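note to self — DONT lose this again. spent like an hour looking for the file last time. sequence + predicted structure for the chain T wanted, 305 res
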Amino acid sequence: MIPAAFWAAVGLLLLRVNAIGNAARRPAFLAAALAVIGIATVGVVWPVEPLDALLGDVNAIDLVQVLAATAAFWFLRDATRAHAGSDARSRLPILMSVLLAETVTFMAIPDHIGEPTTYIHEHLQYPATWLHIVIYMVAMGWFAGDSIRMLLPHPRGVNILFIIGFTLVVLSIIAELVDITSVFVEGHQMPFSRAMLVVFNSLFYPGLVAIGVAHGWRTLRRLISVLGWRLTSLRLFVMSARDQSAGRLRLRLQGSAEVVAAQRYIELRDKIVAGRLEVTEQEQRYLERVDERLAKGVTAWALSV
């Protein structure tokens, strides 16, 4: 399931590449990029020993995983907030404080020797290790829980998949907190703690896959919608270009794909009303369908404000 979560994050990252320049959609891109980094440090997708060696062979790869995953969930919450229609802004100093606390507690662990993939659980007898993971888990649980809170008022469509994914993450974090606390108290791993670790892995990564698929589905729907409006604009442009009385039409217009289509539609309708352009019955039916689509878009916008 970990490779599936990794490739889900990679797929979302590729779908979101064009969102770098868009402030509203950038959090989803950052979340996907950081998720790829975080999952890549687990050691299942590819060996992490060479990477850890490059970082000084002090198991710093574990710190990279924690910082990347924490920041990924922070930006994932931002992306969910934007999806839910909230205009609340994140307070980056909070994220920076959490990352600093994770870094300080990691550096406070007395012994940094061991295998990167098992280092943390083999050093849970140290209070600094336990506190380090508690801060990490609580932060991710907080961001995931806050995402659920924002989505619960609208439990429909793709939001259901989001809620399921974030719920699995929260439940997995509870299992992991029980796991590390039992090891810390007992001083060594037991069958119960190992079972809790299995529960964590069985819930956390499917949760990530669900969240990635939900975001990917939203992105694909948006891209399909944009493509549809672009094709509509092109057809309206070709129809309108038959009238050359006012000179050449502007090939490029400013605005979103739907706004450009609306401008092309109005431009064409004005020419028809002015008697400068005639359309066939088939074209007239097409224009009526475009008018209905544009009206639906305006209605949806009005209901959202």
